[in-house]
Design goal:
5 strands
Length: 202
């Protein structure tokens, strides 16, 4: 089955009932077991639509259950202190951290890999809340793509223009992202590929 990874803005869209038709079609394919929807666990570390953060991972699970994604596959990223949830991450190192670095350099070449260096380069205090939010937002994007590639996803769905830039998208695909599509593109692509797979299996 086609494995489709949803990024944070997709979760927010569904909660806000935006792009409803696109997502209802995807959910139907998921229910019919023609595709598999997957959510990076690091999404729980991103801000909610109201600007606040999840107090724990169970709160995040309740959110995805409420929008019909209770059986979506949860993908564990490598761990970063301060943003990862202990039971929903992996120890980094070796090839895992090398992939993280490669994705980070493509998506955010001007943002340092770790928060202390990010602050040091800008003369900021590590207690600066705005700096922390900006760095975490970037790191969550990186780890979402990391999950997609590491767990061999077929399609990464996002509205975030940074993933679709001509200078970045081909490089991410070269790392193993396969396809990076917008919500209004993914249904037709997923449907045609799932139909093709069914014909090949028969």
């Amino acid at each position: 089955m086609i494995k489709i990874t949803l990024d944070n803005n997709v979760i927010v869209d569904i909660e806000n009932k935006s792009h409803v038709a696109d997502y209802e079609k995807l959910l139907r394919l998921h229910i019919e077991r023609k595709i598999v929807l997957r959510i990076p666990a690091i999404t729980a570390s991103e801000r909610k639509p109201d600007g606040t953060y999840n107090s724990n991972f169970n709160e995040f699970k309740k959110r995805i259950y409420a929008i019909g994604l209770s059986d979506a596959e949860i993908l564990k990223p490598i761990m970063y202190w301060g943003i990862s949830y202990w039971d929903y991450c992996l120890w980094g190192g070796g090839d895992l951290s090398a992939l993280d670095a490669s994705i980070h350099k493509i998506l955010f070449p001007k943002i340092e890999m770790d928060f202390p260096n990010y602050c040091k380069k800008r003369g900021l205090d590590e207690g600066n809340t705005d700096a922390w939010k900006k760095w975490v937002n970037a790191k969550c994007d990186v780890l979402s793509m990391w999950c997609h590639i590491y767990y061999k996803g077929d399609i990464f769905v996002t509205r975030d223009r940074n993933f679709h830039k001509a200078t970045k998208k081909p490089l991410l695909i070269g790392l193993g992202a396969k396809e990076i599509l917008k919500p209004d593109e993914v249904f037709v692509f997923a449907l045609s590929n799932s139909s093709s797979n069914e014909r090949n299996a028969s």
